[in-house]
């Protein structure tokens, strides 16, 4: 049983894997750890799968990483204190799981859907020493986090999967384009894909992102 600062669900890597990886997943607002844990059966066997649950209640069995409101112009105002607290808890959980499972940072991928993807990107750009890459579905960059981004060279060797739905009715496609534009300025390996769907993971998107995870685990990695 893992000792973590957030509620979570865990599936171990296949027994006998010499150098297992760790995939840490985070759900979107209004959901819970069960949501993305449902993807565990699709995740390559060389990965431990850890699905974290956000700390802030947002309804019956529903949680958020931070609360937000939408302005008249469509922009969003977030609870910055909650976001900072959640990011700190996520960082602690990733570091603790990495240590307890004996999986070094160069074999850790952090990912998420929607608000969980926001948290993944924020962790990558502010504390890249904790992970080797991110797997982000239907998400956006958080402007409030950008002032805390590390120097570009600290992201050397990291990788990112970013995908979005062309008909996403919750987070517009332009948000994914903004992620792509920003990550393309950094020394990391970006795989960007679009799929014909709304705010949900398309079956082909799931298949392609799992293939990306398998490729990551098949590539030799040295210490950062």
Mean pLDDT: 95
- State the CATH superfamily name: Alpha/Beta hydrolase fold, catalytic domain
- Calculate the terminal CA-CA distance, rounded to whole Å: 29 Å
Low-confidence stretches: none
Specify Rg, calculated over alpha carbons.
16 Å
The count of strands amounts to 11
Number of domains: 1
The DSSP helix count reads 5
What is the N-to-C order of secondary-structure elements (H for helix, E for strand)?
A: EEHEEEEEHEHEEHEH
Strand content: 15-25%
In short, what is this structure?
The chain has 224 residues and is α/β, with parallel strands linked by helices. It has helices spanning 33-37, 80-101, 115-126, 173-183, 203-218; strands spanning 8-11, 21-26, 47-52, 56-59, 62-64, 68-70, 76-78, 108-113, 133-137, 159-165, 189-195. The mean pLDDT is 95.
What does this structure look like?
There is one protein chain. This protein is an alpha/beta fold and 224 residues long. The protein has one domain: Rossmann fold (3-Layer(aba) Sandwich). It contains five helices and eleven strands. It has helices at residues 33-37, 80-101, 115-126, 173-183, 203-218; strands spanning 8-11, 21-26, 47-52, 56-59, 62-64, 68-70, 76-78, 108-113, 133-137, 159-165, 189-195. It has a seven-stranded mixed β-sheet, sandwiched between helices. The longest helix has 22 residues, at 80-101. It is globular, with a radius of gyration of 16 Å. It starts with 7 loop residues before the first strand and ends in a 6-residue tail after the last helix. The model has no long low-confidence stretch (mean pLDDT 95).
């Amino acid at each position: 049983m893992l000792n973590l600062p957030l509620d979570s669900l865990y599936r171990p890597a296949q027994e006998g894997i010499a150098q297992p990886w760790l995939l840490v997943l985070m759900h979107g607002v209004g959901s819970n750890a069960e949501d993305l844990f449902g993807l565990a059966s699709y995740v390559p066997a060389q990965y431990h799968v850890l699905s974290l649950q956000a700390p802030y209640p947002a309804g019956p069995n529903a949680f958020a990483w931070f609360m937000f409101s939408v302005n008249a112009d469509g922009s969003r105002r977030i609870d910055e204190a909650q976001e900072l607290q959640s990011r700190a808890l996520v960082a602690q959980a990733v570091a603790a799981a990495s240590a307890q499972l004996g999986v070094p940072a160069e074999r850790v991928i952090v990912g998420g859907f929607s608000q969980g993807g926001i948290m993944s990107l924020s962790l990558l750009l502010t504390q890249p020493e904790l992970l080797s890459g991110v797997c982000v579905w239907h998400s956006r960059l958080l402007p409030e986090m950008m002032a805390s981004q590390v120097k570009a060279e600290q992201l050397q060797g990291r990788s990112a999967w970013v995908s979005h739905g062309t008909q996403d009715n919750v987070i517009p496609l332009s948000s994914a384009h903004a992620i792509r534009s920003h990550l393309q300025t950094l020394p990391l390996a970006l795989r960007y894909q679009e799929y014909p769907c709304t705010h949900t993971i398309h079956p082909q998107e799931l298949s392609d992102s799992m293939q990306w995870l398998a490729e990551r685990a098949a590539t030799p990695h040295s210490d950062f």
